[in-house]
Write the structure tokens for this entry.
Amino acid sequence: MNRVRKLILNTLVIICSLFLIYYFGGFYISKETCDLHTMRSFYVNETTYIMEFSNNNYTKTIYANPEEKTMSIVGSKRMGFWHQTASSSTGHKIDMNNKLDTFGSYSRDFGGMITVVYRNDSAIDKVEVCYDDGFCVVLDDWKQDFAGVFIKDKMWQNGIYKAYDNQGNLIAEISY
């Protein structure tokens, strides 16, 4: 009987400890809950999931608010079965004056840079990005007018963004 009592007591202590770590420590069981609490703490309204990129134990998720034309890159870090908030870039206001807008982030912990492009003109079929070091990438996988790419082991750089229609005609060109 004494062993059963110790087992129950130790189990309750472990459960209470895990609950306190979860509640006060910023650790979450699900990535979605971690992202939601991160966005709440930054007072952002982006709730529409767009896409996500993963590298090692880090995940960067793109969220947008189509009504307010804003977007955020929310980071989370997986530690065992726990998720914790990582570096994030929130509240980017999409520029509606140009045919496309770009937003990105770099994190040393994440191990690379993310470039996200929003198209204001649905005639845009692909965007070619040429960074200052000569590295070029084509974005053509659109999700709700967003396209993005993760480039591993690359620091953030400026570049020239050229938007083309489905016939290959240049529609817009911006430098960022």
About this structure: The longest helix spans residues 2-24. Residues 55 and 110 are 6 Å apart (CA to CA). The longest strand covers residues 70-79.
